[in-house]
Each structure stands twice: as structure tokens, then as C-alpha cells.
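Collaborator request, handled under Task 6.
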Amino acid sequence: MMESLFSGEFLALLGAATAALAGIGSALGVGVAGEAAAGVVSEDPNKFGQVLLMQALPGTQGIYGLLIAFIVLVKVGMLGGDGMLELSVAQGASIFAASLPIGIVGIFSGYAQGKAAASGIMLIGKKPSEMAKGMLFAAMVETYAVLALLISFLMLNSIQL
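C-alpha cells returned to the collaborator:
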């Protein structure tokens, strides 16, 4: 049993699952922004469209994690293949390592982006004409999620199976 837990195949699938953890950051971030959005909309329902857009921003980390998880699953043959490839422990560990950047960064950046978006939503509540500034503050956090996505993608593409 212990051999199967530390097989290349298991480590690769653990990598896919780790990448998908970025969804935690998105869920937390969208939740924090949603709380702020509900407060603004309770005061002025006409601002719903503006705050909804801001609330959606932290959702991208989950999408990035899902993308990397899909790439892992395709790479190892679980999706669109003839069954899962036999992987060495080194190959599985490499896939797991390549999945860590988006998994870890996605958790933290999604939550941080949600807090920044919540602040932008509060800005919209007071000054609706300043929406672009609020979006820019939240988008600055996105930069680090995109960098993590890029490094995970490049690492995965460099692994020979």
C-alpha cells in the first residue's frame, strides 16, 4: 500500500489536486468581495453591475488552478488518452512540484485579491466614477497569480514523460 502512495502516478494526481487548491483562494476572495458588494447594493441597488464585476475578479485563481490540473491530467493520459501512463517517482514528483506554484499562490492571492476588490467595492459605494481605480487595485494582485500560472505551465511543459 505504501508503494502505491508514493508512486509516480499518485504524485502526479496529487499535483493536479494541489493545483486545484487555488479554488480555495477564489472562494474566499469572492466571498469577501461579495460581503462588501451586498452592503453597497443594500444602499444603492443601481450599483449591482459595477460591484458584481469587482466581486468576480478573485475568481480567476480558481480558473488558473483548474487549467493546470487539466493540463496535468491530459499529460498523464487520464483525459483524452488511452489510460494513465506509468510514471516514475521522479516524473510524478516533478509534476507535483510544477503544480505547487499555482496551488499555493492561488490560495493567498485569491484571498488578497478579494480583500482588495472589497475595498474597491467600498470605493464604488462612495464614488461610482472611480470604479477603474478600484479595479486596478484588485488587478495588481492578479499579477502574482498570473506569474504562478506561467511558472507552473512552463515547468509542466518541460517534464518529459
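The cover message to the collaborator said: "The two ends are 24 Å apart (CA to CA). The chain has a mean pLDDT of 94. Please let us know whether this matches your experimental observations."
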